[in-house]
Amino acid sequence: MANPWFVYLLRCNDDSLYAGITTDVQRRLSEHNEGGPKSAKYTRNRRPVKLVHKEVCKDRSSATKREMAIKKLTRKQKLELISD
Questions:
Q1: How are the residues of the chain apportioned to helix, strand and coil, as percentages rounded to the nearest 5?
Q2: In the chain, where does DSSP find H-type helix?
Q3: Taking CA 3 as the corner, what is the angle to CA 59 and CA 35, rounded to the nearest 5 degrees?
Q4: How far apart are CA 52 and CA 43, in angstroms?
Q5: Is there a contact between 5 and 60 (Cβ–Cβ < 8 Å)?
Q6: What pLDDT, on a 0 to 100 scale, did the predictor assign at position 1?
Q7: What is the pLDDT of residue 19?
Q8: Per CATH, which fold does 5-83 belong to?
Q9: Is the separation of the CB atoms in 21 and 64 below 8 Å?
């Protein structure tokens, strides 16, 4: 079986939220916090970032679809998702 994919939400230093997908959440979190070329442009100037939510998905396609759905949520809805 292939590695599962994850959708994750980060809380940035400026209190904004960032959504992404990966197969290795801890590695990706480290990349975001290092701020190098593998970090997202959005998080590079908003470090440190903290993992506040993650979901397991069966494959990359479902992870991408879930990420897009999360990105369409309002901030209030994202905060409600985090608090569950």
A1: 45, 25, 30
A2: 25-34, 41-44, 60-72, 75-83
A3: 90
A4: 14
A5: yes
A6: 53
A7: 97
A8: GIY-YIG endonuclease (3.40.1440)
A9: yes
List per-residue pLDDT tens for the chain, 84 residues long.
578 999 999 999 999 999 999 999 999 999 999 988 888 999 999 999 999 999 999 999 999 999 999 999 999 999 999 997
Positive or negative, the Cα torsion across 62, 8, 41, 17? Answer: positive
- Which residue type is seen at 69? A
CB 20 within 8 A of CB 67: yes
The pTM of this model reads 0.93
* Beta-carbon count within 10 A of 41 CB: 6
